Amino acid sequence: MTAVAQAPAGAPSTTSGRRPTSRRRREALAAMLFLAPDMLGLLLFLGIPMVACLVLGFFQVDGFGGYKWIGLGNYERMFADPLFLHSLRTTLLYLVILIPGLFVVSLALALLVRQRFPLVGLVRSMLFAPNVVSLVVVALVWKFMLTDQIGVIDRILGFFGVTAPSWLGTPKWAVGSILVVTIWFAMGYYMLIFLAGLQDIPREYYEVAKLDGAGPWQTFRHITWPLLKPTSFFILLTSTVSMMTGGLDLLYVLTSGGPANSTTLIIYYIYQQAFVYGEFGYASAIGAFLVVILLIWSAALFALTRGGRFGDGDK
Q1: CB neighbours (10 Å) of residue 247?
Q2: How many Cβ atoms from other residues are within 10 Å of residue 207's Cβ?
Q3: Dihedrals φ, ψ of 277, to 5°?
Q4: What's the number of CA atoms in the CB half-sphere (13 Å) around residue 74?
Q5: How far is the C-alpha of 196 from the C-alpha of 232, rounded, in Å?
Q6: CA distances (Å), 214 to each of 52, 108, 203, 218, in order?
Q7: Which parts of the chain span the membrane according to its record (predicted)?
């Protein structure tokens, strides 16, 4: 007879080998339960509306519950609509000026508040303060300040004998005013992101550079900027998406798309078509087109910067 091998006295039994597996299952189940509320929220408030927007883009909706399949009719109408093309050009011009300006101002502020000086905490709080106030309130305050003749800014300029232009009543000044207010509102938020990236850079690098005799510009160029590239990539991506899809409250309160449609950005045009004219199908088609633009921009940014490494050759 063949002897049956006996397990050593201290060896774990076969049943004990199942314990790690069951423990991993319990941990996975607990993780799923914790994630379920967020996943449900994303599905209800993001996933389903996105699918509904894509589907509605192929229908003509009259606002009273009537749906008519028109295929690509809304998209054909979109590219033949001069107001849509105008809003698209205005949005692209707006972003070309806004994103670099917001990037530079936020980075400069982050470099400033990174320094140690009295009341630096208060300065950081004041710069971030607009982000904790409703955008509608911010827009109302700025509209009061920019009102012709009786606004705060006009009164200050008038005290020095300067005739102020119509900040919100002239196309070129209205666009400039929207840009200034947007940068003022958003710079504190992106300043904090830059500040977090700066604080992650080891201070030993700066100490070595100082011993080598490097000046402020050389230190920024060879240490700060290369190590800040992942943060810069994140800000470029999120600020573009945020500025293209947000700010409707600000536009509505300050200019309502005027004067002469000079501040009618694509997000405001979508609002007009959907909630002013009841063209929900057409508005959904424009919204789907906007999502495609953002996806192309995101993919291009990932490709050009190698996911935030900006072609450094890092692996």
Answers
A1: 23
A2: 10
A3: -100, -5
A4: 26
A5: 11
A6: 57, 20, 14, 6
A7: 28-59, 92-113, 125-145, 173-196, 250-271, 283-305
What is the token pair recorded at 186?
Answer: 């958003």
Q: Is the pLDDT confidence value at 266 over 80?
A: yes
**What is the tens place of the pLDDT at every residue in 119-172?**
888 999 999 998 888 889 999 999 999 988 888 898 998 888 888 888 998 988
Under DSSP, is residue 59 helix (H, G, I), strand (E, B) or coil? strand
- For the domain with range 100-264, which CATH number is right: 1.20.1280.170, 1.10.3720.10, 1.10.10.10, 3.90.1300.10? 1.10.3720.10
DSSP state of 68: E
The structure tokens listed for 22 are: 């069951």
Tokens of 6: 């006996």
> What's the CA gap between 59 and 74, in Å, rounded?
8
In the predicted structure, residue 65 carries a pLDDT above the cut 90: no
Contact 129, 188 (CB under 8 A): yes
pLDDT over 80 (residue 217) = yes
β-strand partners of 68: 60
Ramachandran class of 116: left when φ > 0, alpha when ψ lies in -120 to 50, beta otherwise: beta
User: Sign of the C-alpha dihedral, residues 102, 108, 111, 113?
Assistant: negative
DSSP 196-244: HHHHTS-HHHHHHHHHTT--HHHHIIIIIHHHTHHHHHHHHHHHHHHHH
